[in-house]
Specification:
This protein is mainly β. It is built from one helix and 15 strands, in the order H-E-E-E-E-E-E-E-E-E-E-E-E-E-E-E.
């Protein structure tokens, strides 16, 4: 449910933006360096796995925070982008009670395809695929010393820029990220937490 509503929100934004196109030339393409920044919502999937031999059902809670990206267009239709953020802090419910928490940093590098790159459309959608590295920190638990291992995983991306002028644009983007972490409590392995979140960001974009 959480996942489908986020996809619907992004799809609605893309559809609305498409109605606002213009033929003014804005030189959107190869050679652009850009940064995008805004507020991001990290929404893990609803079932995050069972721990300690099935004794606990894990549910990682949603979190909002500031995020930004840095990117470069090396071709009218192709570019690379790195997603970064301030640490997100998530509560972790075990059997419905908030008994743990963690912070994480999710840098994600994607190769992007811009189907309208090199044209004079004000609306510039893009898709991307790449890799994510997630580092967990400041783990805490009422049950003992919790440790979550760093994670590597695949990532997919959808986004759109709505150009305002040659430098500024409104931006909406979403990433689906494969994040699985091995958990231990007091040094004893207790299972794997599958977070697999949608990350949805809305904000602005600036091209250099």
């Amino acid at each position: 449910m959480r996942k489908s509503s986020l996809v619907s929100l992004l799809a609605g934004g893309l559809a609305a933006a498409t109605l606002m196109t213009s033929t003014q030339a804005l030189a959107y393409g190869a050679g652009d360096f850009f940064t995008r920044l805004g507020i991001a919502k990290v929404a893990p999937k609803s079932d995050n796995g069972s721990l300690a031999g099935g004794a606990f059902a894990a549910d990682v809670q949603d979190e909002n925070g500031f995020a930004f990206t840095l990117g470069y267009r090396f071709h009218d239709n192709l570019g690379v982008e790195l997603l970064a953020a301030l640490p997100f802090e998530h509560d972790i419910a075990l059997n419905g009670q908030n008994l743990a928490s963690t912070k994480h940093l999710p840098p994600t590098l994607t190769l992007q395809y811009y189907p309208l790159g090199g044209t004079d459309w004000r609306v510039q959608p893009y898709v991307g695929a790449g890799i994510n590295y997630t580092r967990f920190s400041s783990e805490s638990s009422a049950l003992g010393d919790l440790n979550l291992e760093s994670s590597w995983g695949a990532a997919g991306q959808l986004g759109v820029d709505l150009l305002i002028d040659e430098h500024w644009a409104l931006n909406a983007a979403a990433w689906y990220i494969d994040i699985d972490t091995d958990a231990s409590l007091d040094g004893t392995p207790i299972g794997t937490v599958s977070i697999d979140p949608w990350v949805v960001m809305g904000g602005i974009s600036f091209r250099y």
